[in-house]
Specification:
Shape: rod-shaped
Order of helices and strands: HEHEEEHEEHHEHEHEHEEHH
CATH class of the largest domain: Alpha Beta
Number of strands: 11
CATH topology of the largest domain: Rossmann fold
Radius of gyration: 35 Å
Helix content: 25-40%
CATH superfamily of the largest domain: von Willebrand factor, type A domain
Number of domains: 2
CATH architecture of the largest domain: 3-Layer(aba) Sandwich
Structural class: alpha/beta
């Protein structure tokens, strides 16, 4: 029955409780002629016409019918159903893969200082979360998904365009203490798989934010490469460099530096890849700003518009029409009845 009612106004109106419409014929009762309206008189030709009275009588009946019909529509839950509208903006679909290991709780200090001694700086995780929050706020048309990881990837929020949800998800990365283990390979694979079974609508970004890495075996490397190519993802790594780290461009012959080995692997995946080394908050901010500048392409996306409930408007119309019907009724009452009641 809902489909039949929706067909009356295709794609526009629908009823949440359509069985209330069974009471709609009751709205014809005020229009139904009643017996006392047909009284026989010997001669009425000498009586003058009363066009105003006839108008008030008919108007009162119509207003009463409208009041009853509007009340029925309100009880039936008249409204506009939820729909999806395709829109075109500028931006990207972005999966943020944020490191939540224990090392991210260390202060972000300039190169050469001991992080365990310097306590005057914010932690690397706090700096990263603050700048990612600013990044998301500057790009309200993007769609974001967020994963945290240490020993295992933890999905926090699926793709959404609601800014408050994104900001809450980023802030959730600061709850509790991180673990000492880091499995960046599983995190990259989980981030790439967020795009599975999604229609390709524009620029896709996997934004990795981490201060280190771990060894990734050959099988995991192949799986990551396949997922990145299959989903046509551009990969960015904001490497928050620890004070004692040799960096991403360490000696190629030294395989004991996991972040350098991971950097070399990511360059061979065959997808657009760029890494940013940041050893202080200003450098992290510059890296985030560079990603913001590069990825601002046209993006097609579906926006879900929630249901609109028009029941309150129906009740207001019923109240107004009922008041009008009562007014017409009082104005058309015979004078002798008013005198008797007075």
């Amino acid at each position: 029955m809902t489909d039949w009612i929706s067909g009356l106004w295709p794609g526009t109106l629908a009823f949440a409780l359509p069985w209330w419409l069974l009471a709609a014929p009751l709205a014809l009762l005020p229009l139904w002629p009643r017996r006392r309206h047909f009284l026989d008189y010997g001669c009425v030709d000498w009586l003058p016409r009363d066009p105003l009275g006839d108008l008030l009588l008919r108007g009162g009946r119509i207003a009463a019918a409208v009041a009853m019909l509007a009340a029925v529509f309100g009880l039936a839950g008249l409204g506009q159903p939820a729909t999806e509208v395709q829109r075109t903006g500028r931006g990207a679909e972005i999966v943020i893969v944020l490191d939540r290991s224990r090392s991210m709780d260390e202060p972000l200090v300039p190169k050469g200082r001991q992080p365990s001694i310097d306590t005057t700086h914010d932690s690397k995780g706090k700096v990263a979360r603050r700048l990612l929050g600013d990044f998301a706020a500057r790009r309200p048309e993007d769609r974001y998904s967020l994963l945290l990881f240490s020993s295992t990837p933890i999905p926090v929020v699926p793709f959404t365009q609601h800014g408050d949800v994104v900001q809450a998800a980023i802030s959730a990365g600061g709850i509790g203490r991180g673990l000492s283990e880091t499995d960046i390979g599983r995190a990259l694979l989980a981030g790439a798989e967020q795009f599975e079974r999604r229609a390709y609508s524009g620029s896709r970004i996997l934004l990795l934010v981490s201060d280190g890495a771990a060894q990734v075996d050959n099988e995991m490397r192949e799986r990551i490469t396949r997922a990145l190519k299959k989903n046509r993802i551009a990969l960015y790594w904001i490497f928050i460099r620890s004070a004692l780290s040799p960096g991403l461009d360490a000696d190629d012959s030294d395989s004991n530096i996991p972040e350098a080995a991971l950097h070399r692997f990511l360059k061979t995946t065959g997808v657009p890849y760029q890494a940013f080394e940041a050893e202080d908050p200003e450098a992290v901010e510059q890296a985030v700003a560079e990603v913001d500048r590069q990825q601002n392409l046209p993006l097609d996306y579906m926006e879900r518009i929630p249901r609109r409930d028009y029941s309150a408007w129906c009740y207001a119309l019923a109240l107004l029409a009922g008041a009008l019907a009562l007014t017409c009724r009082l104005l058309t009452r015979p004078a002798w009845k008013q005198e008797l009641q007075s």
